[in-house]
Design goal:
This is Translation initiation factor eIF2B subunit beta. Belongs to the eIF-2B alpha/beta/delta subunits family. The chain is about 55% helix and about 10% strand. It is built from eleven helices and seven strands. Strand 2, helix 8 and strand 3 form a beta-alpha-beta unit.
Amino acid sequence: MNCTIGMVYGLTAELLRTAISQLRAAEAHVLVETVRKLGKELIAADPVELSVGNTVRRVLRIIRDEDVSGVTDGLPSDGDNKETADYTDGQDSSADVLATRRLLQAPSLHRLLDRAPMDDMEGKRKAADRNAKAWRLKRSVMETINELVEEISSCRQQIAERALEFIHHNEVILTLGQSKTVVEFLCTAKKKRSFRVYVAEGAPKYQGHCFAKDLSAEGFKTTLITDSAVFAMISRVNMVVVGAHTVMANGGIIGPVGLNMLALAAKQHGVPFVVVAATHKLCPLYPENPVVRLNELKSPSDLLQFGEFSE
């Protein structure tokens, strides 16, 4: 799950972008309602995947920001208002004079017929202005979502650029899980640093086995250890580097099974504990929120066949 979180976030952003691009109406309230409705369906499909809700909230914020900026761009500045006030003080504009004369004139059928085409043209002009503003809003939202997708695709590289600030020569690094962000983080440090990596096996899915093979293929000095040996090995470790599924509002993280045990062991021995995670994993919800489902409940048959119970 941890290795696909960035992919889920990127695919959600692309799905929302596609839904917005297919809309014929481009008003802000239409975009918001479309994203909100689709977001509820995506969140209900997989409540454990909090990154989907993060993406929906981010896109909704983009729509609101672009709508507000589009409104303020057309407003005159304070200097413009002052200049206009200075120019019109003590004078009546020609439009005000014409409006006053029109009110003083007696109503007639001829004047009503002349005013109807003008009102119709004015209504069409306002409708055209509203349509143009809506399409400008849609285009701005699409461009900002494209920037968001590019940001997601480059987040691992940006995190890895800071690897040399944390990892030094001849250090021993302990990790848990199977995070692509951690792999790129360690690979960047390996270009200029020589260090050893201990990988906890991560029962019951044993993701550490595949992760240790991947690191060995990259040329790392890798040692696979059991989860029960973490507390015994932590005193020989210089740093713990792990990925995160989600970073909650209280600073806690949701990660693979065994991460809490590893954090407690690192705290007991005073070992630095580094979590590498992109900003799109920051969740505004607290763990106590009933909407948050911290654990994914599945059938035990994935780990142990039912026939073994009967025996």
